[in-house]
Every structure is written in structure tokens, then in C-alpha cells.
Amino acid sequence: RRVAALISGRGSNMAALLAAAEHPDYPAEIALVLSNRADAAGLAHASARGIPTAVVESRGFRGDRAGFEVAMEAEFARRGIEIIALAGFMRVLTEAFVARWEGRMINIHPSLLPSFPGLETHARALAAGVRLHGCTVHLVTAGVDEGPILAQAAVPVLQDDTESALAARVLAEEHRLYPAALAWLAAGLVRVEAGRALVSGVGM
Ligand code: GRF
Question: Mean pLDDT of successive 10-residue segments in the chain (204 residues)?
Fold first, then answer.
């Protein structure tokens, strides 16, 4: 299946997807890396690996989210994109766009959802005093960070943790989890029942 990875910045999760997709048995090809910012560091990484890139600057659309999405979808159409993997993409999508890609769009979020949706997840986990934190891959639905959960990984929160130490511990798990979850979706192993994602052949 042909996948577009959508980024806004560093792109380390996108890089993890590219690395996984280099294996011949991997069921997805990253056929496009699209950024809504021309200065996203991840673009250079993708280009260096010969992956097509596109920039659709959200700034240029002045709040016209539907117009921005139509411009992105023109790029998807050019590349025959079938699945979207949000990878640090910092724009909220319209309900109409989400509906068009329902079941075919996933996101990685740096917390154990439903705890800590939104931003600043590591600082909020530290402030809450939780002992476990982590990351979640979920199908994207209209509510931000609310879609059916495909996979999660947990890490311990240590007594003397800093936000950056905790973020790095979570990020290492993100890089492991995201390629696995995308592979399930691309291989057609995921179905949704009563708002929950079921993954065939995976006992978790
Ligand atoms: C990651 O922590 C991801 O979970 C969140 O934004 C961050 C993006 O990092 N959605 P990167 O651009 O993939 O390095």
C-alpha cells in the first residue's frame, strides 16, 4: 500500500517508517513525505533517501483549512496515496477530510491515550505524577487524539525524570511502535467494531 507520511518538523517518526519500509517484506511503501512547513527538517532526510517530498504551506491558506486539504489531496492523487500516517503533523484536519480518509489515516501521539491528549504531554505526565507514560498509535477520527487505539507502548516515569529525558524514552518506543502499527493497517489486519480497533493475529 502507498503511504504518505505527513510532518511539520523533525520527522524522526517518519524516518522510522522509511527505515522499516526498506525491508522487502514490509507491506507499505512511503510514497510521499508531505510537510505543511517548508523548513521541516525531515524533508531533507526523506529527499536524501530518494523519497518524493511535497510542501503545502498551511500558512498560505490563511485559515482556509478545506483549501489547504484540497491542495494536499492533489499531491496524494499524483502519488496514488492510499494511507496517511500523521507523524508530528501539527495541523488539525477538518471533519470532512477526516471522513474521507476514515480507516485509512493513523496518528502517533506521545502519551497513553486517553490520558493527556493534546500538547505538552510529557510535562503534564510529570506534573500528574503518573508512574507509567508512553505512546499510542490510533486511527484518526474527528475528535483530536480520540480515535480507536491500534497499539500502545509504556515506559516507566522515574523519580528524577526531566521532561526531555522522559520524552526521549517515549520517542524510542514511538520509533518501534509506529512502523508495527502501520504494517498492520497496510496489511489489512485492522477492523473497527463498536469504536474499537481489532487487529487480526495480534494478541494485544
Ligand atoms: C512525536 O513525539 C509524536 O508523537 C508527536 O510529535 C512528535 C513528532 O516528532 N505527534 P518527530 O517529528 O516524529 O520527530
Answer: 98 98 97 98 98 96 94 98 98 96 98 98 98 98 95 98 98 98 98 95 66
**The whole model's pTM is what?**
0.96
Report the nearest atom of ligand 1 relative to the CA of 107. Answer: 10
Residue 36: per-residue pLDDT? 97
Residues identified as active-site = 109
Ligand 1 atom at minimal distance to the Cα of residue 109:
4
**Cα(160) to centroid(ligand 1), Å:** 23
Ligand 1: residues within 6 Å at CB? 7, 9-13, 87-88, 108-110, 135, 171, 174
CATH architecture of 2-196: 3-Layer(aba) Sandwich (3.40)
| DSSP type of residue 110 | S
Query: Buried (b) or exposed (e) across 31-62, using 16+ Cβ within 10 A?
Result: bbbbbbbeebebbebbeeeebebbebebeebe
Domain ranges of the chain: 2-196
